[in-house]
Amino acid sequence: MASRGGPRAAGTDGSDFQHRERVASHYQMSVTLKSEIKKLIYTHVVIWLLLLAQMVVGHLKLVPHDQVAMPYQWEYPYLLSILPSLLGLLSFPRNNISYLVLSMISTGLFSMAPLIYGAMEMFPMAQQLYRHGKAYRFIFGFSAVSVMYLVVVVAAQVHGWQLYYSKKLLDSWFTSTQEKKKK
Question: Are 54 and 139 in contact (CB under 8 A)?
């Protein structure tokens, strides 16, 4: 090969290096999936902070109860859902498989399980609201059960996508590990 401005080696046009310039697909996928998971984690943190704010305002009675209702029972264990997100973030710098697996397991336990329980806990109140039009708990003028069902639906989607992308990331890390072992 020749230098940037000098003569070229005989028999080459200088474009034969391009096949070496590509990044392996599992590395590209790892970067992309980490980025997507980080976006989902930041969305989860926003949801978590909103629920925490509702709980603090409700318990400290900073505003009247007709403005912000007391939290439902499922919201307390959901506060632990920040732990899986932190484990997920900790797994990224060194592609730590064990942290990512712990994050996925604890996402099911601390995030998805409270959301499922919350949907079941609020179902009778939602039925009463939509059959009879009666709501007894409110969050800034909206029925609390409607607002919290919206939170449950959004949070379930965030955690579901987080689990999906984490599984794909885990697969790409295993692919890279297997290729290293073959060499």
Answer: yes
